[in-house]
Write a structure and sequence with these properties.
- By secondary structure, the protein is α+β, with helices and mostly antiparallel strands.
- It has 8 helices and 14 strands.
- Strands 1, 4, 5, 6, 7, 8, 9 and 14 form an 8-stranded mixed β-sheet that branches. A 4-stranded antiparallel β-sheet has the order 11-12-10-13.
- Strand 2 and strand 3 form a beta hairpin.
- Bound molecules: (3R)-3-hydroxy-3-methyl-5-(phosphonooxy)pentanoic acid.
């Protein structure tokens, strides 16, 4: 599989105008992508749970233009025009133009909204970029009818990756692998694929409660963080470890061994942050409350024997992961013991989800 196959032949249909809409979720990595080559080709494979409640809805309206000299688009968030979003989308359009050659033929209106609070510290790039990529694919599908849903999803994931790496894991669910790994058949650096092996009942409806420990702007963006893996003293070992961890996750997912699962994902989360702390320049994205929460989770787990674990993304917020069957007691613990470590006591209850959905546009 190469990039070439995503370059379309001549389009068979002429579409003058229309509107499409998709809602696409966020995802949380269990084995982390940290470090990349050009065009978001990952240095190591990753696997994530697709989320359900945290998502972006995007409505894309398009009308054919007279001239095709440049891109023409406007972006709105919650109905408000956002000129500051323009450069990121323009960079994305430039990157994907060869794969979507119709991009300069239309004037676009991109209207987007998120289910999670805008300044929650939850990155909207995975859900936002995948929702936009899916809308563009829906237009391409009209220009070239007959594409298979497998190709549609693959190309949507491929395009999302060019917008923001981890966004390629948001198209489908419930477990998505991205990055070539010899133990996962069909895995690719170019797009995310559904995890193809058996998954134990224990992981069905797995819960993710996101503790909003710090809602501020990150001091170091993930783009800068990824780049600091170039020449990082532990990079080679870390990339090899991610491959090994993915291989060890396979029997854990199959047998439903929750203790081994927790040990693996917590180690992955702390390794990600260890890479940040050992970069040059070094940086720390965790906050005092991140550590308070982690210590309380460990103490509660020891005391109760319940299967509560955590993971972290590139920020201070904590994703508390646990099986649905233990949700009642764990949620009570979160409310009474952990919420006080969140800004304004805020947390978001989410769970494993099954990917993006196309929305029907009411034309009236
Ligand atoms: O997709 P990016 O460039 O925002 O990087 C995401 C990196 C992590 O969230 C830390 C890990 C991951 O695999 O999602």
């Amino acid at each position: 599989m190469t990039e070439q196959q995503f370059i379309p032949q001549v389009y068979t249909k002429d579409i003058t105008e229309g509107t499409v809409s998709w809602e696409s979720p966020s995802n949380i990595a269990l084995i982390k992508y940290w470090g990349k080559k050009k065009d978001q080709i990952p240095e190591n494979p990753s696997i994530s749970f697709t989320l359900n409640a945290c998502k972006t809805t995007t409505v894309l309206s398009y009308s054919k233009k007279e001239t095709t000299s440049d891109f023409d688009f406007k972006v709105y968030l919650d109905g408000e025009h956002k000129p500051d979003f323009q450069p990121k989308i323009k960079t994305f359009f430039e990157r994907v133009l060869v794969y979507l050659p119709f991009l300069k033929d239309y004037a676009f209106k991109i209207e987007t909204s998120n289910t999670f609070p805008h300044s929650s510290g939850i990155a909207s790039s995975a859900s936002g970029m995948s929702a936009l990529a899916l809308c563009l694919m829906s237009l391409e599908q009209q220009l070239q009818p007959g594409m298979t849903s497998e190709f549609f999803n693959q190309k949507a994931s491929f395009l999302s990756r060019l917008g923001s790496g981890s966004a390629c894991r948001s198209i489908e669910g419930d477990l998505i692998v991205w990055g070539e790994n010899e133990t996962v058949e069909g895995s690719s650096d170019l797009f995310g694929v559904k995890y193809p092996y058996a998954v134990h009942e224990n992981f069905k409806n797995y819960q993710d409660t996101i503790l909003l420990v710090d809602k501020g702007e990150k001091q170091v963006s993930s783009t800068v963080g990824h780049n600091l893996m170039h020449g990082h003293p532990f990079a080679a070992q870390r990339f090899a470890q991610a491959h090994e961890n993915l291989a060890s996750l396979k029997p854990i997912l199959e047998s439903g061994d929750l203790d081994a699962f927790i040990a693996l994902i917590e180690s992955e989360a702390l390794t990600l942050h260890a890479m940040m702390m050992t970069s040059m320049p070094y940086f720390i994205l965790m906050k005092p409350n991140t550590l308070e929460v982690i210590n309380k989770i460990w103490a509660f787990r020891k005391e109760t024997g319940l299967h509560i674990g955590f993971t972290l993304d590139a920020g201070a917020n904590v994703h508390v992961l646990y099986p649905k069957s233990e949700a009642e007691v764990i949620l009570k613990f979160i409310k009474t013991e952990l919420a006080s470590h969140c800004q304004n006591r805020q947390f978001i209850c989410d769970e494993i989800g099954f990917g993006a959905n196309q929305l029907i546009i009411n034309k009236d």
